[in-house]
Amino acid sequence: MSAILSADDLNDFINPGIACIKPVETLPQQQPPEENANPYEVTTEDKVKAENAPPAQISLTDCLACSGCVTSAEAVLVSLQSHSEVLDTLDRHAELRLPVQDCVRAANGMDGIDEDGRIFVASVSPQSRASLAATYNVSEQQAGHMIAQLLSGPYGLRSGGTHGSGFTWVVDTNVMREACLVAAAEEVQQALNAPTEGQKKLILTSACPGWICYAEKTHPHILPHLSKLKSPQALTGTLLKSILAKKFGVPPEKVWHMAVMPCFDKKLEASRGELTSHSWHGREGEDAIRDTDCVITARELLMLAESRNISFPCLPRKPLAKHFRPPFPDPTVNAFLFGRRRHIKGTQGSASSIGTSGGYLHHVLKTQQSLHPGSTISIHRGRNADVADYSVIDSSGKTIFKAARYYGFRNIQNLVRRLKPAKASRMPGANHRRPARKPGSGAGEGDYAYVEVMACPGGCTNGGGQIKVGDVGTLRQTGVENGSWEQEVLPAQREWLGWVDEAYFSASSEDEDVDDGDADGDVDMDVLNCPGVKGEGRSDDVVDGIDRSYIHGILEHWSSITGVELEKLIYTTFRAVESDVGKESVGGNEMERVSALAVAQGGGW
Amino acid sequence: MLRQDCSNLLSAEFPAAIHNYRRPQKIDKKFVGESVLATGSFDASAGIWRRWEEGGGKGKPAAEIDFTGGLAGGDAEAEEEEDEEWRFAVILDGHDSEIKSLAFSPTSPLLGTCSRDKSVWIWEELEDDNFETVAVLQDHEGDVKCVAWHPGEELLASASYDDNVRLWREDVDDWACCALLTGHKGTVWWVEFEGADRIGMLGTSDEVSEEQKAVLELREKAGPRLLSCSDDHTIRVWRRIPKERREMPTGQGSLPSIWKNNNFEEQWIEEARLPQVHERPVYALNWSKKTGRVASTGSDGKIVVYEERWKSGATDKKEPNGDVTMEDGTPTTVAVTEPIPTSAKDGSGTLTEWVAVAEVENAHDVFEVNHVCWATRADKGKRFDDEEVLISTGDDGEVKVWTFDT
């Protein structure tokens, strides 16, 4: 799906691709004939200077033949965010040494710090952990510890590089995901109560960037239906940057946020103009700083380790020692981010109804169910495993809420087609009494209140950046003595995905495990003693294991300590992307403009 | 509006509708009580049209007819006789760029479409004008030019600018590529399967020898063959190698993963090549379901007809009798002398040969001929039952009808 994505701010323009039938022909400058020129001598490259290539002219007739043109925007964007970019950044900027105890700093900046220093933070998605867990046959929790060891620990990135920099904090995006779930359920309820033009009754999830870019470019008519919520990645970025910037009195650009995600489309999401400091920092004069500076995939995380000659499977599987992770500058948020996840036991749905993309639909259904005591949820599977209808039926048998799950491009087609407004066809022979397209017919798609849309069949565990079963064999052998891994027959990709899913879902049951302490045997006492941590059963506003009032408290707290309205922090916008191919370029050479953008550092987009 | 039967046509040229750039390109028709027509357009959408067939024969086989004349403008007649004309039913959106070809499946309610956006889409027709996307297949690396369905199975072939032909089948709950046919050295413009009723049957119905019988049985087992034609001027015949039952490895609980895919993937080999008569890219061909003859045409303006025969000593010279005087009417008889690329130990290819039995040059004046197909002759000049004529369309904007004399 990423082949057809586009980014805001960047105009799509078409470069003749390698497969183009009309190569950019550059005629050499006419050299005046030299004296004594030997006509048999071969002209060498340095004698012939190429002119500045004019923009290639490709007419429609040429293009019918080959379709080799490629928009370069996406290719450039994606290539800028890679594991080498991470290493370069770590080498370019010293890690800002933060005082462990003192959370308040002067607004003028910190004493004697490197002007070029950065506070490095990372966030890791559960699907990436699951992929690594399945690859190395460890538990999901252990994979999480190994990642933290790599990014923050003494044996990881800190053991090398120019400055010995590592990441100060490694956050689990599951934490912010819970906030997203609660906010999503509320959004749905609001839309049900009072649908407006700005937020229609049917809400489609917007956390999947593959889906968003496709919708913005190809189906702008569904944009009013999209949930305004930021994705867990974006929300984590906003939270980390806004709080750190505020608490340490540094501009947002001093915080560098890296995310480990299961797909490449998340890189495009990170480049969105809407997900920058401009939406919450308020100072319009400054350059917009992205909430997430760099996204790397699970696979690239391993390349990151390899580049520094670190063997990932050999990293310790225990949590980091306490002194490698200073407390986050706000104790409430610290507990929220790093406290032991005390999942209050709720009814867990089956894996397929939760899905591997965060479980938005599941939580919304559970919330609706809790609003109508005695109701049940019924599931009706569609034409394949990636489509299903869900209904909440009250005790009298009436259907009070309808929702659905649509994963995969082929299924999304059917969804958007039905949501398309009917347009009378001007085709000869068309029956003018009936609209040509059939809106909202058949299964009653118009009746849905919520649809979870994800671009990848099988959900995020099947993302493009996850580790493929074909690579697992070699990865397991890297840096490990022969024979220390059991020789296991690896299955086909489909079955492999099942193993990754198993690792993903095993995470929730692990949270009840006793914290067996970090590498030093210490248990983090600060977290337990911090105010604001809700104990078990403290609140009765719990849906599916998530304490909603606790989440509300955290969000309010976040808004108050940063001084930014909550709407600006958690909501975003979308806009239709229109192709300007064939239209007059707005001033200046397109090629130059994009090249200039390409070399601009961090946030140039 | 073009009509299916030729009752108003003599075997002469007549001007067809002017085609504009947004014309629907390829049309595929099948007969289901009411006729359904699918049109694919350069605006990236496909349309579905319906028409009631009055007293149309119950047993009429599905006739695939390709129109390139445009549905240009409304027809005053059409609006009066609404019941006899095509009613627009539904638009299918989804492709990113021009649709190059589409085809209905003869065995299931599926429609295959392909486009310059390198993808092949499979749609399923549900009740009430409801078409759902079943699969979006993106394995091709270039513009997909043509799709064709297997006459008896749910198997789709696609031909592409990337020089390959791919075969697609359903695997559990999704469609995937089960075979990749490589070998062509240029864009593959057209693919077509053999008619189901005459798999591997050859023109003459003389007594067959034991060896020949074996060949026929082998072909029957392999199923209808596939024809492809290309920029490289060749027309190739592909045949499936049917799977033997494989021995399960003993003593192990589960199959190693490499075997799991083998039940899904298919193996096809290039069985033969038709005599190379064309001197430029071959754009289209048609394999007659009735006679087994193949007609091909292309950029060089020629229309060539081929037959498959048992190899024998004598070569029959057939004189074609078209309505346009030909420059050079001598057919060429070329036995397949090129070695079959992969080992065909069964020898199926070596007992038969393809022979060019008729040729017309400059069929559409100096213009390229884009399409050719066989159609049952129905006009007054019909000489015998089941006689077939050839219909061709060219860049001169004309549709021509050719008779074929055996």
Could you describe the 3D structure shown?
- The complex is a heterodimer of chains A (605) and B (406).
- Chain A is built from 20 helices and 13 strands.
- The N terminus and C terminus of chain A are likely disordered.
- Chain A has 605 residues and is α/β, with parallel strands linked by helices.
- The longest helix of chain A is centred in the first third of the chain and has 21 residues.
- In chain A, 35% of the residues lie in helices and 10% in strands.
- In chain A, helix 9 links the parallel strand 6 and strand 7.
- In chain B, the strands form six sheets. A four-stranded antiparallel beta sheet of chain B has the order 1-24-23-22, with no helix packed on it. In chain B, strands 2-3-4-5 form a four-stranded antiparallel beta sheet, with no helix packed on it. In chain B, strands 6-7-8-9 form a four-stranded antiparallel beta sheet, with no helix packed on it.
- The longest helix of chain B has 13 residues.
- Chain B is globular and about 55 Å long.
- Chains A and B meet through helix 1 and helix 14 of A and strand 5, strand 9 and helix 3 of B.
The multimeric state of the shown protein is heterodimer
How much helicity do the residues of chain B have? Answer: under 10%
How many β-strand runs of chain A? 13
User: How much β-strand is present in the residues of chain A?
Assistant: 5-15%
Major sheet characteristics of chain A: 5 strands, mixed
Structural class of chain B: mainly beta
State the shape of chain B: globular
Residue ranges of chain A: pLDDT <50 for 5 or more in a row? 1-19, 24-30, 59-71, 100-110, 431-445, 510-538, 601-605
Give helix % range of chain A.
25-40%
Rg result of chain A? 26 Å
Secondary-structure element pattern of chain B, one letter each? EEEEHEEEEEEEEEEHEEHEEEEEEEE
Give the termini distance of chain B in whole angstroms: 31 Å
Strand content of chain B: 35-45%
Largest sheet of chain B: 4 strands, antiparallel
Name the chain pair with the biggest interface and residue counts per chain: A-B, 35 and 43 residues
Protein name (chain B): Cytosolic iron-sulfur protein assembly protein
Organism (chain A): Vermiconidia calcicola
Protein name (chain A): Cytosolic Fe-S cluster assembly factor nar1
